[in-house]
Amino acid sequence: MQFDLNFVKTIIAGFPHDLRRHSCNVCYLAVRLAEYIGCTYEQLKTLTVGALLHDIGKSCIDENILNKPGKLSDYEFSIVKQHTVWGAKMLDQFKESQEILPIILYHHERWDGKGYEGLCGQEIPELASIVTIADAFDAMTSSRPYQKPKTLTDALKELNNNKGTQFSPELVEKFELCILELAKRPYHTSINKFMGQLINKFG
Ligand SMILES: [Fe+2]
């Protein structure tokens, strides 16, 4: 079995709708930021697959927990936190997936070291830090059962308020410039169209 974008497309087609949409949005935003800061073609290719599959471990979690309105219990949160490790274990069997494992495993790290695995600052792989910002931005600006979406201005404010603690300060600054450019055109493109563009570019 070849671990290429067509295979990834098949995997994410099996995700629940919200997870599929989130994964594509995160991928779109992460790739745009990575292009903006000058990542190489190989990095963009790795990031594309890593971002699309960053939350694959959530497919092991009961949707009642994932979509629970309100605060999770300590036990439920401990289950959700396992999705990075579960995701990495699911993909570890594929020889071609090794480069994306750090993205899956470290996308919930924090710049101050208080994230899931305790990496901090530059210890966190840059592609994972890019996904962290794209992930947070999409989560804040999307409608969820338990929250109204934030406006673009409020979401950028939140990223800025948490740069240096939760997020890489440099990447937040670059993301803000990049997203203000993107805001001039809609990014919620259809999933099939977006996957088609990615396969043409990286497949
Ligand atoms: Fe996640």
Task: List its salient traits.
Hypothetical protein af1432, binds fe (ii) ion, 203 residues, mainly alpha, single chain
Description:
The chain is an all-alpha fold and 203 residues long. It has a single domain (5-202), classed as Hypothetical protein af1432 (Orthogonal Bundle). The protein has eleven helices and no strands. Helix 2 runs antiparallel to helix 3 (41-52), helix 2 (17-36) packs across helix 8 and helix 8 crosses helix 9 (152-161). The model has no long low-confidence stretch (mean pLDDT 90). Residues 54-55, 83, 107-108 line the site of fe (ii) ion.
Number of helical segments? Answer: 11
CATH class descriptor? Mainly Alpha
Which ligands occur here?
fe (ii) ion
How many beta-strand segments? 0
Global Rg:
16 Å
Average pLDDT for all residues:
90
The CATH topology is given as Hypothetical protein af1432
Major beta sheet, specifics? none
Helix content: 55-70%
**How many discrete domains?**
1
N to C succession of SSEs: HHHHHHHHHHH
Terminal CA distance: 15 Å
CATH superfamily: Hypothetical protein af1432
**Share of residues in strands:** under 5%
CATH architectural grouping: Orthogonal Bundle
Return the structural class.
mainly alpha
* Low-pLDDT sequence parts: none
Assembly state (oligomeric): single chain
Shape: globular
